[in-house]
Amino acid sequence: MTEGAPAIFMAMEASAIGAAIRQSRWLYMSANIGHIVALMFFAGAIAVMDVRLAGGLAATAPGPLLRRARRFAIAGFLGLVLTGGILFTAEASHVVLNRVFQIKAALIALGLLNVVWVEAIIMPKIAALPPLSPMPAGARQGALASIAIWFAVAICGRAIAYF
User: How far apart are CA 114 and CA 24, in angstroms?
Assistant: First the structure.
């Protein structure tokens, strides 16, 4: 444990759950693998959504495609939250002080704000668009921001162990 960490994170790590995760032969490793699988699932769904929002896959009506991909993205994100929570609990006092983790958390918040913006502003404009219709203003920017943000989140996630 790291002495400079807030007490709640030290308590989380020292809890029976934190100890069980660290002492288990399979739990931490399984959560780590699950985190990577969930990341691939999430990234695939986000890639489909962002490519469509940026104007690709134009032969497909954007509304139905984005609705289906959104379900997969949500499932992947929930998998990331679950497995990430397990990984975090095992080393909470150390990870919470890690600058790369702090950047990752800020980027996740920024990514979620971008999702809210796209859902509130862009999605109502494209819900009923037919195939081959041009995307509305802002769709491309939201997609490019999404790609950049989530890619940076993934890079930070992998880099946490090295800082």
Answer: 37
- pLDDT single digits (tens) 29-66: 999 999 999 999 999 999 999 999 999 999 999 999 99
The Cα–Cα gap between 35 and 80 comes to 5
Instruction: Determine the number of helices (DSSP H) and then strands (DSSP E) in the chain.
Output: 8, 0
pTM exceeds 0.85:
yes
Residue 1 pLDDT > 90, yes or no? Answer: no
Q: Residues 2, 97: contact at Cβ < 8 Å?
A: yes
The residues, any chain, with a CB within 8 Å of residue 74's CB and separated by 6 or more, are none
Q: What span, in angstroms and rounded, lies between the C-alpha atoms of 25 and 36?
A: 18
Residue 57 is encoded by which pair of tokens? 């896959």
